[in-house]
Write a structure and sequence with these properties.
The protein is 31% helix and 30% strand. The protein contains 8 helices and 15 strands. The strands form 2 sheets. Strands 7, 8, 9, 10, 11, 12, 13, 14 and 15 form a 9-stranded mixed β-sheet that branches. A 6-stranded antiparallel β-sheet has the order 2-1-6-5-3-4. The protein binds pyridoxal-5'-phosphate.
Amino acid sequence: MVSHKPVIFVVEPFGGSIRWHNPSLPLIYWDDYAVTRGDGIFESILIRDGHAANLERHAQRFCTSAAALGLPEPILDSWINATQAAIEEFGEGEGKCTWTYSRGRASTGIPTAWVSIQPISDVVLAQREEGVRVMLSERGWSFPSELPAKTLNYAATMATLRLARERGFDDVIFTDPDDGHVLEGATSTVVTVKGAKLRTPYDDTILPGTTQAALFAHAESQGYRCKQKVIDVDYLLAADSVWLVSSTRVAARVRRLGEDKLKAPDNENEIRSLIDAAMTRG
Ligand code: PLP
């Protein structure tokens, strides 16, 4: 039977054992640094056909993030076992799997670690089909570029997203306040398509995206030419299509950028299938 209740498995951070946790009961203590400082890391992973997509890239980035924050090295086998156990309990259908690893309680110093799976939200499903209206916003903050990490600290990003929604947009693309260059989406990587060329912004403050990496590897094998490049907003406006790519939403075409409408390209379905195929190979 298909279960669409959230599923949680706690990972014991040093020994690596896993245990089921009732999703209706609390899990985090009041003095956990995830709560008081956003001090921890996470990964969001697409579950499709009983399989964690792109798992190797997620696991690698998770370890890089842990090292950047000085967290104990994750016992990857345990995280993968917990993911497998959660997939079995979740049942069929697409899901969003999250690995969360916090610095833990101030009073014990022991990290808090868990894996969850929940259904993909209706908003995300709709955005895959309908695309997104995107507000441009300067981003004046970044994590130190020599310590790349996917951290839990998204408060400023979420505030910007709320502002965008109040103004009639669905999402945000951040730009560099100094030179106006395009950085990334609020929770996604920007990819442009122009003929057989796929481009993604280059900047050392951008989180390296696992979806973009999988897409570029697959697209190269299909004859596309892919590279990172410093990109400005005019470049986005001149592209055949602009996409926000990320693990669980997979791909949403940008159909409005600020005040500019971006017309659907003739090959919209081909590009969507290309990105989808990249996710089912990993
Ligand atoms: N950039 C940011 C800031 C993100 O939060 C995310 C995903 O959450 C991405 C890029 C895309 O990364 P991925 O494709 O690994 O999901």
